[in-house]
Amino acid sequence: MSDLEIRRATAADVPAIVAMLADDPLGAARETPDDPAPYERAFAWIDADPGQHLAVAERDGRIVGTLQLTFIPGLSLRGTTRALIEAVRVHRDLRGSGLGSQLIEWAVEEARRRGCGMVQLTSNATRTDAHRFYERLGFAASHVGFKRTL
User: Fold this and answer.
1) Residue 3 confidence (pLDDT) above 60
2) Transmembrane ranges (predicted)?
3) Domains defined for the chain, CATH in brackets
């Protein structure tokens, strides 16, 4: 995978990112790739925020993976800044190829480079394969998460 480039996403990458978000059982029920406007608005907001890093993995001009890295300054743990990894996706035909590990390790190194003392992530409770994947990469299921839809 030495021909892989992980870089900051551009507006032109949004359709490929949304396609990956929609390409699984959970995403198929909640994403609407045929309506680009909400994704374009969200991208503009993310791209303008220095605490956000929407990344894509590109190979041979094709977007094959993505994740969002959010930097969260905090007072707890003696002022530790955390990095939150969200929306990790790998193109369907490359799942199991090691690309996901490369994306996560890139995010961990980027968090370290930005002075973070911790990297955390969430994963839907139904994604048991993803949970095993994150545990293999050294993440511990240390908390219970809660969400409230508004």
Assistant:
1) yes
2) none
3) 4-136 (3.40.630.30)
Distance, in Å, from the CA atom of 138 to the CA atom of 145, rounded to the nearest integer, reads 19
pTM to 2 decimal places: 0.90
| Residue with tokens 């309506």, as numbered in its chain | 35
What region, left, alpha or beta, does residue 42 occupy, with left being phi > 0 and alpha being psi -120 to 50 degrees? alpha
Q: How far apart are CA 120 and CA 108, in angstroms?
A: 10
Helices (H), the chain: 14-22, 25-30, 37-48, 76-79, 99-113, 128-136
Is residue 2 pLDDT above 70, yes or no? no
CA 73: distance to chain centroid? 19
List the single range of 21-30, 83-92, 109-118 with lowest mean pLDDT. Answer: 21-30
Distance CA 72, CA 52 (A): 9
Place of tokens 């050294």: 138
- C-alpha to C-alpha distances, 84 to 19, 34, 130, nearest whole angstrom: 22, 28, 16
